[in-house]
């Protein structure tokens, strides 16, 4: 890794070099007065020692600055690695939620309800409905389902109610997961990501589910209650489905 010195470090090195050079020069020039009786060889040896000390000190300064620069460089690399790990971590979370939302939409669009049409001229036949239409037909064809004097559970009489309830639970759990997760350390970015998820879910919920239930709201009934039209019998659509739809709508509003 190429180590770059800052302007302050370069200025410091220049000052150290100049100071050491001046000191060394003064010492060398004063040798003939300090050592008048020494031979030229002895004086040369002394000068070599002075210069050696100077270069050794200057080299130590260079080593110190190099090590300091290396430490700073390592810290920068570690920070970059950490930032990349955080980016990958949050990206994986976002991808997971996107995948879950895609699965949710696919499950709603592939929801199937079979209804036997007994009014056909050539005899009854099964008609298959899919997606939002299947949800509407399921609700509309069961508004008058009679639960009997023992008030049998509507989910028992119509298994598709259970499947729809589980699908709505999956919708609600997806919203809760988005609400509880963190998608970025920046709160503004995190909120924007969540808002994008909510907007996608809200549009799909309103288009495919919400209004099917709104159109049947006057037909919901608790199993312990009588007919909404006061006919004395226990029938109507299970209130649990409507309650769950209301909870989802509240979270997305």
Structure description:
With 253 residues, the protein is mainly alpha-helical. It folds into two domains: 79 residues; 143 residues, no CATH class. It is built from eight helices and four strands. Strands 1-2 form a two-stranded antiparallel ribbon. The radius of gyration is 41 Å and the shape is rod-shaped. The model has no long low-confidence stretch (mean pLDDT 79).
List the helices and strands and how they pair.
Layout: H1 7-29, H2 31-34, H3 40-109, E1 112-117, E2 125-130, H4 132-140, H5 154-157, H6 159-180, H7 187-214, E3 220-221, E4 237-238, H8 239-252
Parallel strand pairs: 3-4
Antiparallel strand pairs: 1-2
Helix pairs in contact: 1-3, 3-6, 3-7, 4-7, 6-8, 7-8
Transmembrane segments: 12-31, 43-67
Keywords: Membrane, Transmembrane, Transmembrane helix
Protein name: Phage abortive infection protein
Radius of gyration: 41 Å
Kindly state the percentage of residues in helix.
55-70%
Overall geometry: rod-shaped
Q: What is the typical, i.e. mean, pLDDT? A: 79
Secondary structure category: mainly alpha
* Strand residues, percent: 5-15%
Going across the major beta sheet, what is the strand order?
1-2
The count of β-strands is 4
Q: Could you tell me how far the N terminus lies from the C terminus, measured between alpha carbons in angstroms?
A: 54 Å
Number of helical segments with 4 or more residues: 8
The helix/strand order is HHHEEHHHHEEH
**Number of folding domains?**
2
Keywords: Membrane, Transmembrane, Transmembrane helix
Protein name: Phage abortive infection protein
Transmembrane segments: 12-31, 43-67
């Amino acid at each position: 890794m190429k180590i770059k010195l800052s302007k302050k470090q370069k200025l410091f090195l220049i000052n150290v070099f100049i100071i050491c050079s001046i000191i060394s020069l003064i010492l060398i020039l004063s040798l003939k007065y300090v050592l008048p009786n020494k031979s030229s060889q002895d004086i040369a040896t002394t000068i070599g020692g002075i210069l050696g000390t100077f270069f050794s000190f200057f080299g130590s300064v260079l080593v110190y600055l190099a090590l300091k620069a290396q430490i700073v460089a390592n810290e920068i690399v570690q920070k970059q690695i950490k930032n990349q790990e955080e980016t990958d971590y949050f990206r994986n979370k976002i991808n997971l939620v996107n995948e879950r939302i895609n699965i949710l939409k696919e499950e709603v669009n592939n929801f199937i309800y079979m209804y036997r049409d007994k009014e056909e001229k050539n005899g009854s036949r099964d008609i298959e409905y899919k997606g939002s239409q299947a949800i509407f037909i399921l609700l509309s064809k069961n508004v008058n389902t009679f639960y009997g004097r023992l008030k049998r559970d509507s989910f028992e009489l119509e298994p598709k109610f259970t499947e729809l309830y589980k699908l709505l639970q999956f919708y609600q759990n997806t919203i809760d997961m988005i609400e509880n997760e963190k998608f970025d350390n920046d709160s503004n970015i995190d909120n924007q990501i969540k808002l994008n998820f909510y907007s996608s879910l809200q549009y799909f919920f309103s288009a495919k589910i919400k209004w099917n239930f709104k159109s049947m709201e006057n037909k919901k009934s608790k199993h312990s209650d009588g007919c909404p039209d006061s006919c004395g019998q226990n029938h109507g659509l299970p209130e649990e489905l409507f309650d769950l739809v209301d909870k989802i709508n509240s979270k997305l509003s």
